[in-house]
Specification:
71 residues; mainly alpha
């Protein structure tokens, strides 16, 4: 191999960002259709919090470990 290897943390960051975006979208959709389910502690909107958290963590990893060109 002549090129620089890409860190595994970059791919983990991309996956966490993808999962965070999907969970956040599902949480926002569930928030828009409130009252459809009778779940304990539904008013905490944990899907939204987890989605934002995963999106932030995945974004940090993806930006911090992104591949850079060598000059």
């Amino acid at each position: 191999m002549t090129g620089k290897m890409i860190s595994i943390w970059f791919f983990i960051g991309c996956l966490l960002s993808l999962y965070g975006a999907l969970i956040l979208f599902a949480g926002l959709r569930d928030f828009a259709n409130a009252g459809a389910t009778d779940v304990v502690l539904h008013d905490l909107h944990l899907q939204i919090w987890w989605g934002v958290g995963l999106l932030a963590l995945g974004g940090f990893y993806a930006i911090h470990y992104r591949p850079r060109r060598q000059r």
